[in-house]
Amino acid sequence: MKSVLEAHIEKGEFHHGYLLVGDFEVSREMAFEAAKAILLKPIEAHPDFFYQTFKLFGIKDSHDLQQRASLKPFLGNSKVFVIEILSFSIESANALLKTFEEPHEGTYFFMITSSLEDVLPALRSRLMIIDNSKERKEINNERKEFYKKFLADSPARRLELIKNISQDKERAIEFLNELEVVLHKLSDFSILEKIQECRNFLYQKGGSPKMVLEHLALVLP
Known about the structure:
By secondary structure, the chain is an alpha/beta fold. The protein has helices at residues 4-11, 24-39, 59-70, 90-101, 121-124, 141-152, 155-161, 169-185, 192-203, 209-219; strands at residues 17-22, 49-54, 79-85, 107-113, 128-132.
C-alpha cells in the first residue's frame, strides 16, 4: 500500500521520525528509498547512513543510538538511521522518548517493526506511523468508487457514509488505509498527512474511531 512517506519522498520534505509497521521487506525498501532522497547520494558505505537489526532492542542500544544521533554529519547536513526491531524492552522505549521529543536538526529515523504491540503509546505518538501490513492489497472498482464519492460529497453526506464503519476500530483503520491508496492514485497528496494523524489517534489506547472519522469527514476540503 502506498503511504504518506511516498509523498514525502516526492516532495523531499520529511518528518524526523517514522515507525514502519508490518512487512519488513516492504518497510526496508521504503526506508532505503527515503534515505537516498534525504542524503542525495547512494547509501552504500555512506558515513551518515546507519542500518542495523535487533532481535531485542535494549537500554544499551537506545543509549548508543542517542550518542550516534548527537554527532554532527560527516557529509552535508543530514543523517539517516534505519533500524529493524523485532521487540523492544520497556526501558529502551522509554529511553528513546527524549531522542524524539528533541530531535537533532537534519537527523531522521526509520524504525521498522512487525507490530505496534511492543511499542509504547508515548513513543508511537512521537513518530509518523506507516502501516505496511496491507501493502499488496488491491482495491476493487466498487470500493474505489465508494471513496471517490466520499471525497466528492458534502460533510453531511460523508458522515452518513461512515456511520457503520466508525463503530469498529479495525474497519476504521482499513478505511483510512484504502482512502490513502485512492488519493495516491488520484495524485492528491494534500490531505495524506491528515489521514496519518487520524490513524495515529486510532492506534493509541482509547482512540475513538467514531470521533476520528467524523473529524476527518468534516475537515476534508
